[in-house]
Sequence to fold (494 residues):
Amino acid sequence: MRHSNLLAAALVSLLSVSACAIDEAYEEDGIDDPFLTDGKTDDAISEGSPAALAVLKLASETTEAKLRSDIGLTTRVAKEIVKARVAGPFATLKKLDDVPYVGPAAFRALLKYAQAHGLIANNNPLSATATRTPWSGYWWSMLNGELALGWDDRSAGGARATFSESEARAFDACIASYTPACKQTIATMAGDRGRRLSPLMKFDYMVRKQLEAQYGAGGAVASLYSHATKWELDNHYIGANTAHRYWDSRGYAGKCIGWALATMAYDEPTKIVELDGVEFRPADIKGLLASIYNGAQFFIPTEQSIGNAFHNVEGSDSQEFYDDVHPHEFVQALYATIGKGNILEADMDPGDGVWNYPIYKYDLKVTRRSGNTAQVQATVYFANDEVAIDLVSANDPQRRDMKSRVLNFELTLASGTEDLSKATGGRWLGASVDEHPDALILGVEANWRTAIYEYRNTAMNTEVNFNLIKRAQGANGQWTPIVDGVLQRYYAAR
Fold:
């Protein structure tokens, strides 16, 4: 942008006033005031530490003008530093402390600038982005039951329909039957490549078609059919059932944790693919993934989980559960996951609600430092599950579907280090007291997809849709989940 001469003059004047204001506000040290005591500063920074090296680099390389205008040193101190480094860069804090008029105030000005601009090197960057970008997807409400009952998208040019519970159950009852009435029911509801069906109905219908191809119509034994839709209706669909075990949680009960964990392992489904004569759209695959990975939450190693989910029920309603995750634990989790290229899964509501999201990016900024206490502002970025069911977020290069949240907190740093991950404690500040993450998942068991079958006939049957992950024996004698073949073929399709 071009500025007029008048505006340029005004900008010069403004900058001059700003520089003067800094100069006048700066409380200059005495000629021999030291900032080192027994090899450490008042901020417990020692020789050779990342903070010390950052300050020495600033003092050794910053121009006199920027020492004044950017860092805020007085003219006299800036000149003394430039004069002292003629013999070479400052190798130690002791050398810098020997410069006339460089004392505690000058050192803190240099340190504050280094902290604010992320110049203090450590193995934990103040900003990081995961190598995988998560995708936005619907949270699959158990109250509404779209996984089993579907949704109507005809106003947007689609072909889907919303089925009643009785219609969906009638469909399931006919999946393994070839009576004339059932053949008519299946033909009517699943006509036109099953385009009207819900995600789980499509899966059940595709399994039926595979069994027809292998055994002939009606030739397969009943136990080979999947009935994933029936399981969803029997166990997770709430509807108007006031006796449902999740009735009190109906406002947020869903499979957002399954969606969030699935984004760690799978790219966003973006295509329309026909498999065995059944049309699978992106939303269908997202629904199947959310259902499958809903079971992964039961396979989180203790060391990969931080915090306790707060609920308004006895045993989970303590202040301790509300207060965690604590800020220092959150920072450590950011470094352990996103800092190493991985996604961090988080329940972002410390209250009774449970809203899980995949966090893929963070920015940390130290806004204030006093002794071993640092005030930090963290901005975290995560994919959104409160979107239209059929949304394909990859279609928007700007990714306007993404969400962000600013969190403010205080950290107690370990003595002698500037590394935020080494903080020994902390507390949330301001609005973050009621907006901080409630529970974190850093990763799942590597073999959870195999281990889950060990719980096939346990209480987990009411939480994990084993009918969806039903296994079939291949020609090689191995038992493989049918849905895995669906996902493999879907993603391999061009």
